[in-house]
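Technical annex B. To support the medicinal chemistry partners, we prepared a structural model of the target in complex with adenosine monophosphate, based solely on the information shown next.
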Amino acid sequence: MLNIILMGPPGAGKGTQAKKIIDAFHIPHISTGDMFREAIAKGTPLGLQAKAIIESGGLVSDEITVGLVRERLSQPDCANGYLLDGFPRTIPQAEALKAMGPEIGRPVNLVLDVSVPDEELVRRISGRRVCPKCGASYHITDMKPAKEGTCDRCGAELIQRKDDNAESLKTRLENYYASTAPLIDFYQGEGLYHHFDGMVGHVALFDQIVATLKAAQ
Ligand code: AMP
């Protein structure tokens, strides 16, 4: 069973790896960032609440985020594994996830952490383009789509995320080091932690991740 957390700072390549993992292992992709962006696009009460926080690079409250994930993980398609991307991002979220694992019978059994130095994160995020429809990520020089401005996966027009600007990124990185990086110790303590160097390139990184996932299956 693959009940996976994929973690790492913004720009580490989580989204790109997540898409490849779910295609290869046929498990649902649970991206809290994508769920929030969808809520914003639809103008739901959750979206209205989260919009300003997300655009400025802040973190949505633990209570709201945990509620969203609990409901999603309880759905039938998560019974045979799942990939959490962008959650948990704080110790209270990790504690809540641990508490809900046995409750819904789906405890996390693998944590994959991708690390990349800050200068490279800034370079990647400033050139990032994303698909608003399927969430796929591209880069203006490193990972171009086959047709400029168009998503290879679903054909939608690519955009730049509102929080992919220098100021929001600074806040996101600060939040990452203050609130999310402590999860490394947390999951090392749980014996679930696997580290990956995100500088090896997305193809080599995927090969290494696949080897770890196959060994765990
Ligand atoms: P991401 O797509 O993972 O980079 O997430 C985009 C934004 O959504 C983050 O910068 C936060 O504002 C918000 N967000 C996503 N996941 C979480 C989370 N687990 N806890 C709090 N805020 C989150």
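Notes passed to the chemistry partners:
The chain has nine helices and seven strands.
The pocket of adenosine monophosphate is lined by residues 10, 32-33, 36, 53-54, 57-60, 65, 86-89, 93, 163, 172 (CB under 6 Å).
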